[in-house]
Amino acid sequence: APPPAGGPYELAIAGKEARVVYNDVMVGEVWLCSGQSNMQWSMNQSLEFENEEEREKYFSAINNPRLRLFTVPQSAIEKPASDLAGAAAWEECTPSTVAEFSAVAYFFAKALQEHHTLHDIPIGLIDSSWGGTPAEAWTSREALEAQESLRPLLEHWDASEDKRSPDRPANLYNGMIAPLVPLSIRGVIWYQGEANVGRGSQYKTLFPNLINDWRRRFDQGNFPFYFVQLAPYRYGNHDPRALAELWDAQDDVLELPNTGMAPSLDIGNPADIHPRNKETVGRRLARIALAETFGQTELPFRGPAFHDFETIDDGSKILIHLEFAKGLHKHGDTINGFSICGADGEFVPAEAQLRDGGLVVWSKEIENPAHVRFLWDDTAQANLFNAAGLPASPFRTDDFEMLSANENY
User: Strand pairing partners for 361?
Assistant: First the structure.
């Protein structure tokens, strides 16, 4: 049986002919940190260390023997592997080891350890990430085949000769997740989706399928799966509404048990797909874990979110009701990002005003509005917050067919 959380311990394994001793063994919380480039993005690339003097000052104080780091070697292969593709080992968190490690993962763990209930608990971070890769590459072939709507995606790649592509369905699951399945983990933090922009409708199936697949494979129940809402960015090859459709899919995933989303619409850069502020992202993920996994239920971790709506003022305006909206307020003179439509479904820019914890939305161009969309554009940045300083999430009141409805690969 494992000893109490802490360490370092000595672990001895004795056989008939030999005895092996492992030193410096820690017992604590292990989190799997996965996704594409924004999870892979290293500490020395983040906003906090752009200034060389500040970087040196910060790294000099970063030694943390109760934080251990493990980087999974990148591997894209056709069949599930039982071991990793290259040499890898747990490392103590020091200035040299953390410099190239995931910034989001580090700040997540740092924020957890700052809380008094976890201050003395060792945390292990496993970084298994690969920039530019889609969700289907991180999902097992079996799970993908079980979804009829994903068969065109599989057929497209089955016709490809590129068998070792990191974009190929299941290849990264095979090389970088399957070998980890025997491990006990506390949960997962996930930062991915940029490579699936333009296929938001399909992501509504892909993403929950991935989560359910990993939970089945690890066989440790519905472990926590906390993910990052993508930041605003102008995806030049896609319609400006394509990212909003992926945001919509991410929001739907919250219907799965033990999931949580860290908001990011206030800290992105529409000109840079890699927003440099990784500390805020990591800390927002930690807020979810502290509240949902470690019982700090008084800690708010969600921004204002759509609940329902009704027409008011003789049908000329729409009143939006929000949840998680205590202390709702705006930054600036006006509220960004609202559009409204009538029965014809043609959206036009709209005005919005705070009212009794909700929002009144209208446009002089629409006499009898039917639906509202909020932040439905890939460069939209939130300026509506709750008392915890967390930004509102995009939403739509309509169920019109998505632009990406027929985008299968």
Answer: 318, 352
